[in-house]
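Form 7-S
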Amino acid sequence: MAPIRLILVSTLISFTAIENTNAEDRWKANAFVANGTTCSSKGGEFFQEYDGTPFPSKDDENQDLSDCEDGDMTLFNGILCASGEAAGCDAVRNSRTADGRMWRSPRRAQTNNLGTGDSGGAKAFSPDMQLGVLLYAIERNDTDLLQNWFRWLSDNRPCLLENPAGGCLYRGLPRYCIATECTMRPIDRDIDAAVYSWLVGTPPDGINNYNDIVVEITAFPLFFVLPFELIYLNIPVGEKVYREAQLNGPGYPRHVNAVRAWILNKINHADAPRARDALALIASQEPNNAFFQYLHEGPTPRVRELITSYCPTAEQASQSTRFEWMWEQGNSASWSRPYRDGAGNISAALWDCIALRNLVGDATLGHGASIREMAAVNIALNLLSENEIPIGKTPQTLEFAPLVDSFLGENAPSLVLHASSGLPVELESGTPNVCTVGINGLRLIAIGTCELTASQSGNSSYASATPIMRSFSVLAMRSIQNIDFTAPSMMNAGSQSELVASATSGLIVSFQSITPSICTVLGNTVVSLNTGTCTVEASQAGDERYLPANIVTQNVQIGVSQGGSGNDDGDVPLPGWALATLGAALVRFALKNA
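Output:
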């Protein structure tokens, strides 16, 4: 009877798949498309030049017939493009102007007169939108667009020191638009440089020598207010991304950082392993967000299940307000199924659902039949070649996330185990002399290779799942290290001083200011900015031989600069070292351009 059962199941699956192939793609049929009718009036007269070139977008929150929200579309369409959706790629490409500059959407590129002060400001572009351009360039290998854009970034840096005879003596940091809020941050520069180097080669001035510009500008605190991100200047990009994952809250900051990590993975950057750590952390913070879970674990059955629970069924697609894209939402643990806004309306943008179905490779989602029925069909298709599925029993699959190498005497790696049936997963150690599994979880016993097998035997409703085996190395116990840290007890505003610290491990100690409005740290030098208490941390992250050291802090009292109290206007004069640095910078500039 076994062959008969298999034929019956195969016949059912084949019929359902054929029916679905001919069904209407209702997600795409109902997704919001900006054009001359749906996206024309916002901004009034300033959008009259828009020719109606269509592009994926999201509806206005009030669902006005001639309005839309296209401010984030270069990033969102970059994600759509990276999923393989041609409409997203076209939208990013059409968001550039002839001078190489990039804009938030094709509409804003055509109507760059957004009103007084806006054509150069946040309504034009932002540091976050750069990620969409990079995703597009990677997906389409469009080195021409990338080179022209970077050339614009280099050529349009602000002039910090004008030549009285005309021209500019010294230019500042690149900006994604022509306003201060678009200034390129260290983490932005690192991601830009990584992609440009991978696709093209050495980036142009302003990006390639970004760190040198920052160091020289830092010498003039009256010239420039240092952003908090400058403490990250010399930290590897993967570590920057991980620290952002630790600090960022839900919503926009979280999905922007997830895309950074995704990009480092896409180009197989040297820091990709640390970027994957960041994605694992973000996934733990957003357990029900299919986008973050996909970036962490790939196209697993659980990710498909999350897509089907977030997105509306094909029959519900026409009811969606199409206002919110999945990755811009926060606190996924509290999401309804399907996702609804505060008023109870189904609110998926649908383009996000299309991007996710592309990424997991499931073209059946969003068509005429129920999404959940289609997901079950795909799971069955995946399992038919491996298991004989009895009539009346539902197939199930296991998820067992890869395990990271761990050190003896420290926490065992986190176990992510899940059965699509919801039944409990059994875990067994194949190397009990190295690791054991008990009521208190996984325990590390000795140095060696730990082998674990996950299984689920099924019940009266579910067939047994195919077991999954994972292994990882248990490494030698790490030694404790301590930090000896000294700093000056007092400084004058506008001065700098060397920080001295050593670790008993002999590893390099890192410094950072936790009072960035009072002082900043570059390398092992503390630079005072304002009067008050400057607090500096010394840390050492450890390695394969040493545990992370306990952080040590020192307080430095910053007083008024010498001679500053006699100025009627209250300005603090530049100290001698700053004037010397300014002179040296001008000499270098003059020699370079002689």
